[in-house]
Amino acid sequence: MTSKRTAWTAASLGLLTAAGLMLTAPGAWADGQPTARELLDKCDNGTDSCVFHPAGPPEEHTGAGHQVGEAAFNCTGDLQRSTVNWSDTTGESNSFGVSLSAEYGFSEVFKVSIETSYQHTWESSHTEGQATNVDVRPGEKGWVERAPKMQKVHGTYEMHFPDKFYDHYIWYQDFDADGPVPGSTGDITQHTAPMTDQERSEHCG
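The chain above was modelled as a monomer; its predicted structure follows.
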């Protein structure tokens, strides 16, 4: 049974290849085949149809925390409440380092697919700003960190060409993207720690 199933699969793939179809995988490029960027640039720009098939709804997760704004240093002998004003921009990333901010081609196909399939809006970047209070004890420093809310999407572009493109009429390209959740502030936390000798010298005289 196993050998018959394997033979049938191999024969089927042979028919697909003979018909001018090709399944592609990231990084599996060889001579005579287009790069991933070439394929993406052809989406709605030389194709009869270009569709992005998401593998599932966007997966929300928390990005890496990082300091925002300037640190506050308490050189007095009393507890001090400092206000840290900050602005932070979170951008997108994807498996091929291309921008999804443009309103045409593969980027528009991607965003429309996510919005119509799962009622999720895709943002290429999101800027958040606040004034956050930090209570800093004598001889310590205080700062604010932000961990943005992110959403991951995995899927495949399916492109149909009117004429053979690199000897095939149909190409598939896997694609992964990670971007900020629209309208999300993220996790905001306040931190304090004792000043180092160098910090005390620089900020307290």
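Residues 20-204 form one domain.
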